[in-house]
Write a structure and sequence with these properties.
alpha/beta; 27 helices
Length: about 1000
Amino acid sequence: MPSSLSCILSVGDVSADQDRINDRVLTAAAKAGYQAVLWQVPAGSGGSTDSLIGAAQSVCAAAGLALLLDINISDFPVAHPLVAQEPALFAMRRAADPERPVDPRTPTAMSGEALARLRSDDATRVLLAPIAEQLLGFVAAGVRGFRLLHAERIAPEFLAALIARLRAQDEAVVVIAGPGLSREAARALRGLPLDGIMSSFGWWDMRAAWLVEEREDLRSVAPLLAEPRGAQLSQANAARSLLAAAVSADGIIVPLDVFERDPAIAGRAVAAVQAVAAFGGEMRRVGGSGGAVTAWLRADCRDVRRAEAALLTFVNTSSEGRPAPDPAIVLQTIGAAFESFGADAFEPLDAGEVRMLTAKRGAAIALDVMPDLAAAAQAPRLVVEDVIPHVDGGFPVKRVTGEAVMVEATIFADGHEQLAAELLWRCADEADWTIVPLEERPNYRWHAQFVPLRLGRHEFAVEAWLDRFGGFTRDFRKKLDAGVAQTVDHAEGRLLVEQARDRTTGALQVELTRLADALARDDDALLLLSDDLAAVMQQADDRPHRLRSAVQPLDAERLAARYSSWYELFPRSQAAGRHGTFADVIERLPAVRDMGFDTLYFPPIHPIGTTNRKGPNNTLTPAPGDPGSPYAIGAAAGGHDAIHPELGSLDDFLALIDAAHEHGLEIALDFAIQCSPDHPWLKEHPGWFAWRPDGSMKYAENPPKKYQDIVNVDFYGPDAVPGLWTELRDIILLWVERGVKTFRVDNPHTKTLPFWEWMIGDVRGRHPEVIFLAEAFTKPAMMYRLAKVGFSQSYTYFTWRDRKAELIEYITELTTTAPKEFYRPHFFVNTPDINPIFLQTSGRPGFRIRAVLAATLSGLFGVYSGFELCEAAPIPGKEEYLDSEKFELRPRDWNTPGNIIADITMLNRLRRAHPALQTHLNTRFYAAYNDNILYYAKPSLDGADMILVMVSLDPHNPQEADFEVPLWEFGLSDTAGIAVEDLAEGYRFDWHGKTQHIRLTPDQPYRLWRIAPGDKA
């Protein structure tokens, strides 16, 4: 379209609007950048408008504007001679006189207009000349061009002939098609010399994708003109609509009244048209249709991939400010690499804002150093990748002794060469590898397994190479079967044997010489394909293009690292009316054992400082005789290597260790790297601490909690390395020598990671049986890193996960993503520090719910004493226990009515009896159609049966649900039957069909079943 006519004012009907037009308005429009005025010729007016058009042309010419006419060329006056001469070429309208009654005996008089049938076969022959004559008469009167209304009524060939007739007289005549053309009708005009075609902008909601689609579809037909209409032109929307119209098309038509109402906005639309003139190429959406901000890109050529510059447009369709589209989304969808669209490009948009941003193509990055050909020729030809299990950073995979380690890898090479691959594994103290052949699965996936039987560090790798003789026998056998084997094929096999003979020595060479001689006739296919020859060739294989993966370390730990039931108690609370002792704990061991626990864990048992000692409920005003917090470690009696005198002597502790072993219990100690102000280290090793300028020391904090009775060591203090580091390691080694093999570490995330990696590696290098549990309630990245650097187990977010969706999400993360290889979740239901809100508000049913969840979801299950008695009295508004045992003695009545000892005992019994409950990694969630019921399975390793767990998460109300029995896991149909054992109640029955129903109540909030096909349950 001629650029001089890209901005047009429309004034409606010539006869109706002539008086509104004056030199002042048109002169202002021309100054604003408008080039033409579009007037509409009244329907059926014939030549009666000549004088009006002449006057209009004079006014426009005086203002420097061209005159265009909106005209429907199919409109003819009913009195036109052709209407009578060629009635078949017209559609006639008939109307009766409203003042007279209808007389059916007489024809209805014609009135209104006659519509020419410009798509009929004879239209060009009969109607082209009179229509062209009328239009040329307008041109002679000074009209510059025409917008053809109802262009869909005009046959493309008729329109082509009409434009040719007009241009023959005046080559500058402008012809615009539209508005209202359908996409199909507009496409039919492709190839015609049109100066413009109307877009459908007037019907656009500012969001839908079809406007961009329309432009891309029609920009090869003719330049698009946008004409806002209706509500788009309201006072509130006009600015946004005019600018969006200008930026979305190649030109714009603006009503005169809008220009008069707000000439500044109309002027900005002209500027926008001029700005986009350089970007007439491809247009594409760069955002969705659901957001408040619409975004598109226009290029300076037909294909944005070859564009040298681009225009990015944001349209805020909201009456309020909105954020700009995400640059991370926009920039990747624009289709080419452009330089920055400006520092403020993606700042928030004002209400109704239309933002235009330009950028030039960015220079591609050319490297100064090209790849080395010689190095490329020596690069591995094979690919060995995605080896699992794997832990990034070179950290070890975690398994337990006796647990099969399934190793998989993706192995392939170019072409159709046959490959061979092996799994290599060994204990860290062995020089030789144990070799296991890898088997190929679909999609280049190979697998094999090994079983670590010794405690400690192992390592494994995968090696692959081209199996040339194996590839030969594979192809040779196919040729024999197809009857196409040739002599040269036999010779090829013999050559491989001869080459193997020549590179070997000793007995192997002798055997290969014999076999090569036997193959001399080139016709012994049986020998070429024999197992004996294959075995000898395998021994002689030089493994061309051999490639070995990186070595992956693996720690094989004892089963207690993955499966154990922990019970936590304060030794000092195990006597009534006095400070408890280790001897009192020994009296308690049978009860702990009878509940089914196998690990008995103590908070710190070291001397407790007196400076800033805490009183009941964490107060700062202790009374004489208050025991203080055991985490304020260190006093005149010693530090981390000593025992609190009131608990007993070292001999008493060793006696407790022996007694625990006799009851099948292991003692776990708390390793808390913190000191009371009375700890001997502060005087003996001041360089292990960070001192303030005034000589004081800041007490420990974990906001909002404050620990005025504790100070922390400084791992990078003046004398801390190596002194502090080795002292802490030696403390662990000391307690290991005393019989402690398991340590719960307090807040390890607040200590430096390199220390943990070094210390745990050192200790477990000497004592692979030692287990470390991380009490790290922090962000997942740190919790996972602690597991990588050596912690065998970790406390988890389970304590706060009590809704179905979040439990499923969390367990799924732990069992299906990277942490499954190194992170073992220890599900403690409560701790001395954490009295969960769920337990505070749920009563006895809630305790039963949390117990069954913890005991069956993870192989590691922990209880802090008092849980079995349903203790939950909180400090108001906090997740802390009222009268916390951390600050006072808490003897208990272990026979308190309403306890859940029976539930805990049963759960631990089932955990011992069913290995499926000894890991979290086999958890599978199934459908129970109620958001308050969690339903999952724990299949056995051999798949012969599985445990099903159904738990109501609502401790207050009954809950019901239909649920699906996973018959498909056993290869059974949806209507089959399956045997069921109720593990909690001890009876058996059958289910028939996949869909069953359950009702759980606060009095019976869970079910535990074992299912197996047939009558195996």
